[in-house]
């Protein structure tokens, strides 16, 4: 999947990242990943370079010369490097996409509604009935077909939008640019090794601007480590074979800790006066939560497997929106893209494919927060003594933790959700003009 899958999860607000075929988009409007230190998801470790990779700006020719040394040390031949890298120059579109900063963050409810559009649900339900190989993949890997269909829908619109960037050139562009050099060089070396092995040609190695390839948007290291040949033709073809692509996604999720017969999340209703400070906190079995008044929104009983599984409370839109107990497989989905909103979107879309309904508690109607408001809230939190980390406008786990602590100090529901109201209160308290 994507991108950097993204790379970054750059999650604004509730930590939502969206993947588009053209690159990972954060929920926030077209938000590409920030210059994040972490590689994109699928979270596969980047290969350790043989020699240290220098950080910072370098002239392109200087970078290329240095990189060739590291590529040779990684086992690639001079002939291959000459053939594949001669004449390659950075693609300005890739750098532009990599440095976009969205002005507004999309409210998570809008994101989830977009993920679960009726058109998409209809297509998914049809494919669910038509594609017999889905049940074979489910039997082999233990990942439900509805989850695989949701990944397929989110990553490439069921294979329709795979991206047409030359992955080698995209990785050259990102590596030479330097913001994510070590990650991009690792992906570049993996892409060159794929070509060198004869498994994939340069012409076939197409993907998003951030190097996410095929129907499941695997970056090259993920492809090498986890793609599988499911249809038995001897090739791992995540571009042209639906069965190979979805089995590869199932394999990635299995390696990410997917547990057979365990759920991903259940919507819950919280009792009046609930202590929201446990949001994104302890992972406890459903009976622990029920002892605190938490009950399933659908009123159904827990399966034996889910009843024995630790679950985390998440409130993607704060106390005003739906609440969920995230079961172990929620976190397996996050190995694909480490975003709460992404994983929730996959799970809710899968529920719809299986015939389920949208969440019972409606998503609140919200105005998107601007970058300056997000940054002002972070500056205000730091000023009043609750360090949220860098004031970068990205509302990640650190900012949410600081926000919960501040809310608790103000006797506000400590849901860690940065609403417009919270921004206004923080700015007022910190003496930042509105
Ligand atoms: Ca195949």
TrEMBL record:
What is the top-level taxon of the source organism?
Bacteria
Pro residues compositional bias, start-end: 30-52
The chain positions of domain Peptidoglycan binding-like read: 372-426
Residue intervals of the Transglycosylase SLT domain: 60-351
Q: Name one Pfam family in it.
A: SLT_2
Task: Please give the residue ranges the record annotates as the region Disordered.
Answer: 21-55
Q: Which Gene3D superfamilies match?
A: 1.10.530.10, Bacterial muramidase, PGBD-like superfamily/PGBD
Provide any one GO MF term from the record: peptidoglycan lytic transglycosylase activity
Q: Name one GO biological process term.
A: peptidoglycan catabolic process
Question: Which InterPro entries does the UniProt entry name for this protein?
Answer: Lysozyme-like_dom_sf (IPR023346), MltB-like (IPR043426), MltB_2 (IPR011970), Peptidoglycan-bd-like (IPR002477), PGBD-like_sf (IPR036365), PGBDSf (IPR036366), SLT_2 (IPR031304)
Protein name as annotated = Peptidoglycan-binding protein
Species for this entry? Caulobacter vibrioides
